[in-house]
């Protein structure tokens, strides 16, 4: 019997959150093209498996996660040493060392002695594509889109408002979200509110203040496939600097994203008239602080409502298949 050799393996470490996965898609696709014939595995949280595989860049997900943005242990890797290990998790050395412990034949990492310089002030998509380019692997920062979800949207055509965020620093006040929702509903738009598993009270507060219908409150954390379909089918997404914003960018859904402690130049949307980043320039803040960032609080509800209505008019007025009118590209 002739044994078929196993294909060589590339193990990529990026065991972070939803937004990190989606911002890393251009780099993952560059790796896919750069290592033809290899089996590409991504070390990341198991809950993101379905979405990760939809990128078309991966053959498998290796479950790995740690609290916060810490580096997870990879000691449960049961196969032979990877042929190539690639650190897209951070600038090391902890992430580099976690991969090096698997004794890969080749290790690509910022913290390697011959590794590329860490580009601290580059956009996340550009940074990791540049990292690969320095190793001779082309990657396109604009190659970030996901295919349409197979799951139907639970609220096609609705405006999706997501008031939550992982930290208080990036959480715009509930009463301001409610004011925008009231404005959108008064203009005739259906508004659906979403929140994560721990954000039920916040979402209900916005709903009560805005008069939103109970059927339009989807609190408690939707399954990721359903959430992805909801975003893809929405007419607009309004949220803070969260993973949901990156889901809107990935599906090409019009979006208004509210930035505070971190500049959109580092984590904002790709260049497109579909996406508007609202931000008041100033010194960077702490993205993990418990209270809303001072720059985020400088964004008013009237400004946000106007931005949303402008993009929604663009959605309504554009002929089928016609070009987008770049009414709003970026606001400072």
Features:
332 residues, alpha/beta, Rossmann fold, 2 domains, six-stranded parallel beta sheet, five-stranded parallel beta sheet, 14% strand, elongated, disordered C terminus
Briefly, what is this?
With 332 residues, the chain is an alpha/beta fold. Helix content is 32%, strand content 14%. Residues 319-332 have low confidence and may be disordered.
The helix-strand sequence is: EHHEHEEHEHEHEHEHEHEHEHH
What is the number of domains? 2
The CATH architecture of the largest domain would be 3-Layer(aba) Sandwich
Determine and state the CATH class of the largest domain: Alpha Beta
**Main beta sheet:** 6 strands, parallel
Helicity level: 25-40%
Q: What is the topological layout?
A:
Layout: E1 9-13, H1 18-23, H2 25-34, E2 39-44, H3 49-54, E3 60-63, E4 84-87, H4 94-100, E5 106-108, H5 124-134, E6 159-162, H6 174-186, E7 191-194, H7 200-210, E8 217-218, H8 224-232, E9 236-240, H9 243-251, E10 255-258, H10 264-267, E11 275-278, H11 294-297, H12 301-317
Parallel strand pairs: 1-2, 1-4, 2-3, 4-5, 6-7, 6-9, 7-8, 9-10, 10-11
Helix pairs in contact: 2-5, 6-7, 6-12
């Amino acid at each position: 019997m002739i044994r078929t050799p196993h294909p060589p393996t590339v193990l990529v470490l990026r065991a972070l959150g939803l937004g990190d996965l989606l911002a890393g898609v251009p780099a993952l696709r560059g790796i896919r093209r750069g290592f033809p014939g290899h089996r590409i595995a991504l070390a990341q949280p198991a809950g993101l498996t379905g979405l990760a595989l939809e990128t078309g860049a991966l053959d498998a997900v290796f479950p790995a996660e740690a609290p916060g943005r810490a580096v997870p242990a990879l000691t449960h890797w049961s196969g032979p040493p990877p042929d190539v290990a690639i650190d897209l998790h951070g600038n090391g050395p902890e992430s580099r060392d976690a991969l090096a412990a698997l004794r890969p034949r080749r290790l690509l990492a910022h913290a390697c002695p011959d590794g590329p310089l860490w580009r601290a002030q580059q956009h996340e998509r550009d940074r990791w594509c540049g990292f690969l380019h320095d190793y001779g692997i082309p990657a396109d920062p604009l190659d970030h889109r996901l295919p349409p979800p197979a799951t139907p949207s639970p609220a096609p055509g609705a405006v999706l408002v997501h008031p939550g965020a992982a930290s208080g620093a990036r959480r715009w006040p509930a009463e301001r979200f409610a004011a925008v929702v009231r404005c959108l509903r008064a203009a005739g738009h259906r508004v659906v509110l979403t929140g994560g598993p721990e954000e039920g009270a916040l979402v209900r507060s916005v709903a009560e203040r805005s008069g939103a219908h109970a059927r339009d409150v989807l609190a408690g954390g939707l399954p990721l496939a359903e959430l992805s379909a909801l975003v893809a089918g929405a007419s607009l997404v309004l949220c803070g600097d969260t993973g949901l914003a990156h889901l809107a960018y990935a599906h090409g859904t019009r979006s208004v994203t509210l930035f505070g402690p971190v500049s959109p130049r580092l984590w904002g949307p790709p260049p497109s008239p579909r996406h508007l980043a609202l931000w008041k320039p100033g010194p960077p803040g702490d993205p993990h602080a418990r209270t809303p960032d001072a720059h985020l609080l400088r964004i008013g509800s009237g400004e946000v409502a106007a931005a949303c209505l402008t993009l929604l008019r663009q959605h309504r007025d554009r002929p089928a298949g016609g070009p987008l009118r770049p009414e709003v590209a970026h606001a400072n």
